[in-house]
Amino acid sequence: MAQQEQWTSKLTFILAAAGSAIGLGAIWKFPYVAGTSGGGAFFLVFLLFTLLVGFPLLLAEFVIGRSTQKEAISAYRSIAPGWSFIGRIGVFTAFILLSFYSVIGGWILLYFGASITGYVSSVDNYEQLFGTIISNPWTAVGSQLAFILLTIFVVSKGVKAGIEKASKWMMPALFVLFIVLIARSLTLDGAMEGVRFFLQPDFSKLTSEGVLFALGQSFFSLSLGVSVMVTYSSYLSKTESLTRSAASIVFMNIFITVLAGLAIFPAVFSLGFEPTEGPGLLFIVLPSVFAEMPGGMIFFVVFLALFLFATLTSAFSLLEIIVASVSKNSGERRSKAAWIVGLTIFVVGIPSALSNGLLADVTLFDKTIFDLLDYLVSNIMLPIGALLISIFVPLKMKREVLIAELTDGSSRGKKFLALWLLILKYFVPVLILIVFLDALGVFGG
Ligand code: PFF
């Protein structure tokens, strides 16, 4: 690559980074994991982790990326030779993550197809619809392939041309549609029970494993621990405030998580579903809410288009980090790298796509292939990546660099920097270790 590409403005950087963050994590995963892991208590712990761990780590990834202006692997290497393994682990994590992420991306495509052809409005049992849609091996694999092809197509065209344009209006449109959805969901009979489930913490329902899920969820939904945010911020010019950018991304992410919860849980209780439904929760509950609205199916098609877009912008970021590293480190052209990497990810993802049908009986630790990979990435690999980054920054980065990246030179800025470093150095690693050990049962119970 000749010249390092740059975002055209701060807004496009924020939109792209927010685009990476906001996706299946907040909209699909959060409601179903919160549903199975204790509702309000899970949400509260997730919120605390996002603010106290996620925000400082997001800033850490930004600082690494912008100060080096390099992609994930070279960024670490250029600061401290011998530490590029953090970037390599990230690239590997992105690879596995995208392999199962694209399966859900495929489900959205299938729902989109089924709703524009009128098929969704012709059925009234959405649980059955979901079961049929995901268990057919041809549609499962075909839709996963279609999703990957869309992702490859955009990434192969380069950062600026590909990712920037559409983010500008799609994301706000998604917010607006969620508000409409919530208005309907909250006015259903018995909606308050769902609001209570979501917002009233009952800690007796939260297990040690639930706490680990909340940690994993806060990393997953902020795209942390993979060095995606390192790569994205490497395209950012030196004049923007990293702290403000990170704060707005964290805020938007929490906002959309709350919107998703408020859209789904009232409807779950009002329409007689179970919050513990699992990965199908959104796909079963939302069509039911839309069916309760005048012109609901049209809204549903629009919702799916925006949801698909949000999911694609996250997928772009995952493929982008791998392609940026591969093309930089192997000298391969970026478009060729995008095709080779993307198609390999598709092949690796096939067992995940089939794990809701043909391979449903293939399980390990009581989990299907899909569930196992999701568990491994969200609850083990992302926290490990995050742990390494929190150790790396205070240990290996020069103070002058941190001051230049994060402060305006004022004493207030330096105080903020000192606090941030303390959090990264002690609080984040210790917390991650405690949550790990607790989930393993080390502290009993
Ligand atoms: N944050 C994305 C989502 O919530 O859908 C998923 C993700 C993207 C995780 C990129 C990690 C990552 F590096």
TrEMBL record:
**Which stretch is the leader sequence?**
none
Subcellular location, principal: membrane
Extract the PROSITE patterns matched here.
NA_NEUROTRAN_SYMP_1, NA_NEUROTRAN_SYMP_3
Keywords associated with the record: Membrane, Symport, Transmembrane, Transmembrane helix, Transport
Mind telling me which NCBIfam families this protein's record contains? Na_transp
Membrane-crossing residue ranges in chain numbering: 12-30, 42-64, 85-112, 138-159, 171-191, 211-235, 247-273, 297-325, 337-355, 375-395, 416-437
Question: Does the record's keyword annotation contain Nucleotide-binding?
Answer: no
Q: What is this protein called?
A: Transporter
In which family does this protein belong, per the annotation? Belongs to the sodium:neurotransmitter symporter (SNF) (TC 2.A.22) family.
